[in-house]
Give the backbone structure.
Amino acid sequence: MRWIHFSAPGAAAAYGILEADDRIREVRGTPFGTHEPTGRTHRLADVKIQVPLVPRTFYAAGLNYVKHIREYAEQTGNPVAIPPQADIGYRAVNALVAHEEAVVIPPDAQQVEYEGELVVVIGREAKGLSEADALSCVLGYTIGNDVSERLWQASDRTFWRSKNCDTFKPMGPWIETDFDIDAAETTVRVNGKVRTHFRTGEMLYDIRTFISRMTRYLTLHPGDVIWMGTDGKSPRIVAGDTVEVEISGLGLLRNRFVAR
Amino acid sequence: MRWIHFSAPGAAAAYGILEADDRIREVRGTPFGTHEPTGRTHRLADVKIQVPLVPRTFYAAGLNYVKHIREYAEQTGNPVAIPPQADIGYRAVNALVAHEEAVVIPPDAQQVEYEGELVVVIGREAKGLSEADALSCVLGYTIGNDVSERLWQASDRTFWRSKNCDTFKPMGPWIETDFDIDAAETTVRVNGKVRTHFRTGEMLYDIRTFISRMTRYLTLHPGDVIWMGTDGKSPRIVAGDTVEVEISGLGLLRNRFVAR
């Protein structure tokens, strides 16, 4: 099932269920609490797609695919450092934009790159989950582009502007509740041309490992998200480029990059 | 003026204005949007104080007082590294607890310490503020205790469990809108005995510097908070200890530490 957050012309944002014929069945409420059909339907082509949710806490795995870790180390001239354990990090909600919204490159940004990522959306409160039970708190999955400025990533003490400039976190287009990660592939295209391709499930630490380890120490809440990291390498993205992140079975997240 | 977030017995949480006679004048709405008096009043002693807000984004300056930076470097055996610029970091809302709520020490935590901090509460959306105008987006100030497990802080790739275990972020007791940072002193007591004392305003990078630099790249939103860092050093805190962080002109944040 696909949960979509959208706004119809002249109406406030609402959630709906996207059906195979591109029809949205609008609901009252949210996927994270009670909800009921309104009886209203919309054509997907007629609405604006909104960010699927503004997370309560925005978690990100960071380095979680071995090839990406090697290539990033090569680029920065640092030794290859494979994380010895699943330590989660954070991103910030100010940076979120929806499918088809622009990523705005600040005037002093120099080396902007994409990172196509699987996003886990938490649907139920969870603490102390075993790996076997870890997925019981997951509502569904969406797609993220963890846009990064590599010089700031190297120079700054935190990732605050390298990863979290306004508009640097495209997420969407919707939340898919039925997803087979083992069959999934992530493909990133720049201006229509494939530049990165990897098996989505080939993570260093998988979703169960992260959720089980995280919930030993912290409570996950409905509306938290976990971005699972990326593989491979990105070319430098410049104003005018369009980046599409596609994950088979989930959909496609497309954003144009523009200069501020 | 003091904004307090509280719950009266049997009632949902509400905001109110705390007056000098310890009377709370309840409002409908929040300090971050429209609000109006309800006509209801409560005695402070009769209510439960709640976390002043659950921030939209939870910013933290981290290393921002020179003495603390030196002492932390000494403790970890690392060279003293004074941050060359105001790079903001993040904490997580799962960890928040209110004044008088317990901080729960996980069974495998070993070196738990306090960090008494001034907290800036953002009241208005802001982008591109000059240092001169930086404080125009501030609603007020509260107190935070940035509880930290130092071994995890050294071993983990991020601060996820060293700083953000459930209950590791006491914040409160209320939001004070009138505050003279130059006159303020921060005092931390353990079981009633003063263990840390410093001038609140003696920061490496002040509030204006942080807000101006942050809003070059990101939008601050009503309900964001910025924790401004701490000075000095903490003893090891163990189950049974009570930690009080007092900032003159703001109030006092008290929390007991317990074992899980």
Summary: Residues 58-259 of chain A form a domain with the Fumarylacetoacetate hydrolase; domain 2 fold (CATH 3.90.850.10).
